[in-house]
Write a structure and sequence with these properties.
75 residues; alpha+beta; two-stranded antiparallel ribbon; 27% helix
Length: 75
């Protein structure tokens, strides 16, 4: 996740900008969403170009080819 600039109120739908190794992006998204994010074996090690995606975590994961797991519990 990268980005700079001003934040102007809540967006109608969440958005995220991803770039680089899909494994690293999945780890960052897992921390952001507080859910497990699974990278399928055929996509591991793939590089993705800079993309800004909007939508729910489920929609964003589907576009990237990722699988969402259960929510992480706060301890």
């Amino acid at each position: 996740m990268t980005g700079t600039g001003l934040i102007s109120g809540p967006h109608k739908s969440p958005q995220v900008t991803v770039v680089g190794n899909l494994d690293a992006c999945a780890q960052s998204l897992a921390q952001l969403w507080k859910r497990k994010v699974i990278v399928p074996t055929d996509l591991r090690g793939k590089q993705i170009r800079k993309r800004t995606l909007r939508g729910t975590p489920e929609e964003i994961a589907k576009v990237l080819g990722l699988v969402l797991g259960s929510a992480n519990r706060q301890r």
